[in-house]
Amino acid sequence: MKPSPENGEIMKRAKIVIAAVLSLLALTLPASVAARPSHHSLPQSSVFATGLNNPRGLTFGPDGFLYVAEGGTGGDTSSVGKCTQVVAPVGPYSGGLTARISKISSDGVRSTVADKLPSDQLSAAFGGLVSGVADVKFMDGTLYGLESAGGCSHGLADTSNTLFRVNSDGTTTTIADLSAFLKANPVAHPDVDDFEPDGTWYGMVAAHGVFYATEPNTQQIDRITLDGKVTRVVDLSTMFVPPAGWKGATGIASHGSLYFGQLGTFPVVPGTESVYKLTHDGSVKVVASGLTAVLGVAFDSHGRLYVLEDDTVAGFPGPLAVGKGDVVRVNHDGSKTTIATGLTFPTGMTFGPDGRLYVSNNGYAFPPGKGEIVVINTCGSDCNSQNDNSDTGSGGSDLSTSEAKNEN
Fold this sequence. Notes:
CATH architecture: 6 Propeller
Distance between the termini: 16 Å
Order of helices and strands: HHEEEEEEEEEEHEEEEEEEEEEEEEEEE
CATH superfamily: TolB, C-terminal domain
Strand content: 35-45%
Number of helices: 3
Strand order of the largest sheet: 2-3-4-5-6
Shape: globular
Number of strands: 26
Largest sheet: 5 strands, antiparallel
CATH class: Mainly Beta
C-alpha cells in the first residue's frame, strides 16, 4: 500500500535516525565481517583486500589493478557561519581532507593512488557517519573520481563536490563543479526537510565518452562531459515526489541503456525497491522489482543484471542488519537468484576481468581500516575469461535529454 504523505514524511525524516543507530554499530561490530554464504550451493566468497576506510565504488583499471573510492575518516573542520548548513540534527557537518583512492594488486596489497581529498561526517550527536570519494571510473586509460563530501555545507569551505581527473603524479584536476551545478539548477521537488546544498553524489558510469552520475538526495541523474559541461538527464523528483515518494538513485550501470537502483526510505521495507532502465529517449521503466535498499547494479558477460542489496532486514539498520546484505541476479526470464549473502553494509560492486564479482564490504559504520573488498565467484569454472562488464560503458546510450517519461 502506498504510504500517505504524512507517513511518507515520517519515513523520509527517519533517514536522520539511521546515523545514530550506525554510530552504535561502529562500537559493537566485529573487526572484520567477511561475506559468508548461508547455503552450500551459493558461490564461494572470500576477502580479497582489507585496510580500507569506508570503501565505496570500485573499478578495474587497464593495468589490472582494482581501484577503490574511499570515504576516508572525516575530520573536525567546520564551516558554521560561512554558508548554509545541512539541517540539524544531521548537520552541521564537519570534515577534513582524509578521503583517498586506493589501488589493490592481484594479491590483495593496497597502495594509495590519490589522497588528501574531501571527507565529511555527520554531527557528533548523530555518530559522525563518513562520506568522501563516492566512485571511480576509467575513460581512455585515465582515472576519474566522483566526490560526495565536498562543499561548504559539508564543513569544508572553499571546496566543492566535483568530477575530477587523477593525474599520473597523484594530484587531481577538477573537470566539473557539481556543487555549482546543483545550486544553479534546482530540481522540481527538493525535500526542504532533508536537503543537501552540495548533494550526496553516489554512483557513476562512463559511456560513449561521457560520464553519467547519480545524486540521490535531490533525485537526479546528470551527464558530464570531459570539458566540464553538466546536463540533467532526468529529474526523478517529478516521478518520486518527496517526502512520501522519495527513492534516491544510487548505483548505475550501462548496458545498451542506463540502469540504476534506488535506496528507498527508512525504516526498510523488504521487497519495495526496484531497478530502472533509462533509455536514449528519456523513458524510465522498471526492469526488476521486489528488491531492498539497492546500492549497486552491474551486468555480467552474459548480459545478466546483478543487484547489490545493502540491508534486507525490516526496520532501521541495527545489530540484526549485520551480515544481511546480499547480491541478487536477475535472470533473463525475470526470476531472481540469490548469489551471495552474509555481506555487511556493502556499498558498491564491479565485475573483474576474471569474471568474478568484487564488492566493497563494511562500507560504513566501521572504524578506520576495517573496510574490505570481498570477491564472489559467480561463474564457477568459467571464471577465467575476460568479462565485458558495465564499467567499460560499452553499448551505453548517449543521453543528453533533460526530460524523462515514466513508464512504471
